[in-house]
Specification:
Elements: H1 13-28, H2 31-49, H3 53-73, H4 75-81, H5 92-103, H6 110-125, H7 131-136, H8 139-164, H9 169-190, H10 194-198, H11 201-204, H12 206-216, E1 230-235, E2 250-253, E3 262-264, H13 266-272, H14 280-298, E4 311-318, H15 321-325, H16 328-339, E5 342-349, E6 372-375, H17 380-391, E7 396-401, H18 405-421, E8 428-432, E9 434-436, H19 456-471, E10 477-478, H20 483-487, H21 506-518, E11 525-526, H22 534-541, H23 545-550, H24 581-589, H25 603-610, H26 617-630, H27 634-642, H28 649-670
Helix pairs in contact: 1-2, 3-4, 3-6, 3-8, 3-12, 6-8, 6-27, 8-9, 9-26, 14-19, 16-21, 17-22, 22-24, 24-28, 27-28
């Protein structure tokens, strides 16, 4: 539900030098400039601001240690030593995949995703797809291959977008392959194997061996990147003063007044639904979601050395502290997965109720007859999701965030359309506001705004669950989003950790459902479009009057309030720009519904006009992903899917179908633009 920009390389002097060296190489394409580019890249990586080194060293160290352990003691004892006796008796292939998920923290952050991709690539290169083969591999070869894959992928993450700008996919990948080969030659030649052959991995910690290998082989990633956590104190008015360890924290206030740094209109909706006092566990859930939203919005990724991974420690006031204390570790894990950061969540006792009202409500919203809650962004997926629920005989409450003024009007129009087309049922739209001002302390402020906003969808879910709780303890909550976007396979290595949030990834939804169930919330969250492409979703409902009447007004764009893409000349918003990633997917999904002849601009025309501008970045990335897809085997596609987060075998296979169909939809969409073929 929404997109964000990709990973931005650090801005330290070493990285500026590396960027200039890459630019020089792209201009000259000679041996000297290539050597200089790789050398400057190595210096930048060893400067301490490289993303991913910590997670990679730990994960690769675990792989080495486990391989060593099973070689010395056998598989069963190795699993026991690594705390995974539950895997004894499982297939060799399943054990390996489960260990990869464990060692890379289920790809919970950008760092973990890089580690997962590096390890998977290394194992593929060595043709290792089972734990039995892992036990027989030469450890020095395994180390070399893992380090090489990590350095190659790190190069892609930092420079793939720069290299691809204004070039066809073939041209870009030729350059990347050239640099990959050079990196591999350098690393394989320089990496000594004497240490790994002589050292007892079990005694010293294999992660240290990996660090030494990174140091020795190319002076890459010499140190773990640093950066101090941002300690945030979320505070309700009249709460007791924080414990002494939070004296230096940034403070956000959560009140229903004009001076609060965190604010939301949802308590007014609770009030109009007849809740003078909100059930405390549901209020707590929303306070947690609202707090995460505020921190995600107000803490700029640019403040951290790698310009991406934030370290956030937060204390949140809750009414049911005993219940939430039991799952603070789970909260830290799923938030890390959701936003790609390192979270440490703690709770303290709240002394005030956020959602309480002294007087009885005078305006009552009647939800009688409604039987479910569905998130409603105003986009094509949520629009089709509402129609599907109505087709099946449901009466949904549609919950949306009023992100900008004109959006609410559009959402309300859609709801009126549903009630006209399905007169025997009932649809109710509930829109709420939310925002966050800079946290404060006595001597400084965090004034920068972060625009990636990956925690926003959690706020929607928490709001929807709270409303479902008012309707009934087991009223379900739906978040309709197509599986292609929900899975969020990175378009390129340079975009790992970017694009849409991971809110509808099965790992996140399953984890969140388990978490809220552990505190007594029985309202289950699900995505009934998880294994469908956007085109398939559209075709499910395209023949209905409800769809035909308003689908063109749905907003899928990642920046709908920016009119710079609108060639017609209108400055009205919201508008679908047509060439951001969500808009491209939207176009491919509608090709059975509307003619492409009505498009203002073809992709090739857009590239010709905007090739040297950031506006074309998404289109180039999509074309690159198509090129990669055309040249990937099923096994390589499965690797991409596994690296998005933990999935079981059946889910991987189901998502493989969705991914392949989604890519084929894109290929079909671009097929009538002959000039664009060169870019794919």
């Amino acid at each position: 539900m929404g997109t964000s920009k990709g990973y931005i390389p650090p801005t330290k002097p070493e990285w500026s030098n590396a960027k200039r060296a890459i630019s020089s190489f792209l201009r000259n394409r000679d041996a000297d400039s290539r050597v200089n580019a790789i050398q400057k890249f190595g210096e930048a990586m060893s400067s301490g601001a490289a993303v991913g080194t910590t997670s990679f060293a730990n994960a690769a160290g675990n792989i080495l240690g486990f391989a060593y352990d099973i070689r010395q003691q056998g598989l069963e004892q190795g699993l026991i030593d690594f705390g995974r006796s539950d895997l004894i008796g499982k297939s060799s292939n399943e054990i390996l995949h489960e260990l990869l998920y464990q060692f890379t923290n289920n790809s919970s952050s950008l760092e973990d995703s890089l580690a997962a991709d590096s390890l998977s690539q290394a194992l593929d290169n060595l043709q290792i797809d089972s734990v039995d083969q892992l036990g027989n591999v030469d450890l020095d070869s395994l180390l070399r291959e893992m380090v090489t894959s990590f350095v190659q992928i790190s190069f892609d993450v930092n420079f793939e977008e720069k290299i691809g700008k204004g070039r066809t996919s073939n041209e870009k990948f030729e350059i990347l392959d050239e640099m990959h080969s050079y990196i591999a030659d350098a690393l394989h030649d320089s990496l000594s194997d004497k240490e790994i052959k002589q050292i007892n991995l079990k005694d010293i910690g294999a992660a240290n061996v990996v660090k030494e290998a990174l140091n020795e082989a190319y002076d890459v990633c010499a140190r773990f990147y640093g950066g101090q956590p941002n300690e945030i104190l979320d505070k309700k008015r009249n709460d007791a003063d924080p414990d002494i360890e939070w004296n230096d924290a940034y403070i956000l206030t959560l009140n229903r007044d004009s001076k609060s740094t965190i604010y939301s209109g949802l308590p007014n909706i609770w009030y109009h639904l007849g809740q003078q006092r909100m059930n405390s566990i549901y209020e707590d859930l929303f306070v947690i979601g609202l707090s995460v939203f505020a921190l995600d919005k107000r803490i700029s990724r640019s403040l951290f050395l790698d310009s991406w991974t934030r370290k956030i420690e937060v204390s949140i006031p809750v009414l049911e502290r005993d219940k939430w204390d039991n799952c603070k570790i789970q909260w830290s894990k799923i938030l890390s997965f959701l936003t790609g950061d390192e979270w440490k969540v703690s709770f303290r006792q709240a002394t005030t109720e956020y959602g309480s009202h002294k007087n009885k409500n005078r305006k009552y919203i009647d939800l009688s007859g409604c039987d479910c809650v569905s998130l409603f962004s105003g986009g094509l997926d949520s629009y089709c999701g509402a129609i599907k629920l109505l087709q099946e005989g449901h009466s949904p409450v549609l919950v949306g965030h009023n992100e900008y003024p004109k959006l609410r009007y559009i959402q309300e129009q859609f709801c009126e359309n549903f009630n006209e087309c399905f007169p025997s049922q009932k649809s109710v739209f509930l829109g709420f506001t939310a925002g966050a001002r800079a946290p404060f302390k006595t001597d400084e402020q965090l004034c920068r705004v972060e625009n990636t906003s990956r925690g926003r969808s959690l706020l929607f879910l928490c709001a929807a669950v709270s409303i479902a709780g008012i309707m009934g303890k087991q009223v379900p909550v739906y978040i309709p989003e197509n599986g292609f976007i929900g899975l969020n396979v990175a378009l390129t290595n340079g975009r790992k950790g970017s694009c849409s949030t991971r809110t509808t990834h099965p790992y996140f939804l399953n984890s969140l459902n388990e978490l809220i169930a552990s505190v007594g919330i029985q309202n289950h969250i699900s995505n009934f479009f998880a294994f469908n492409t956007k085109r398939e979703i559209v075709n499910m409902v395209s023949e209905t009057d409800a769809f035909k009447r308003c689908y063109k007004n749905t907003i899928s764009c990642s920046h709908p309030c920016v009119a710079r893409y609108n060639r017609v000349g209108s400055r009205e918003y919201p508008v679908n720009c047509g060439f951001c990633y969500p808009c491209i997917i939207r176009k491919s999904s509608l090709q059975d519904v509307e003619s492409k002849e009505n498009e203002v601009r073809k992709a090739s025309e857009f590239i010709e006009a905007e090739a040297d501008k950031n506006k074309s970045a998404d289109l180039f990335a999509v074309l690159s992903s198509i090129h990669r897809y055309k040249n990937f085997s099923d096994k390589e596609i499965e690797r991409l899917i596994r690296c998005t987060g933990k999935l079981d075998f059946e889910e991987v296979q189901a998502f493989k179908r969705v991914y392949k169909q989604g890519m084929n939809d894109l290929i079909e969409y671009f097929s009538d633009d002959s000039k664009i073929e060169a870019y794919m």
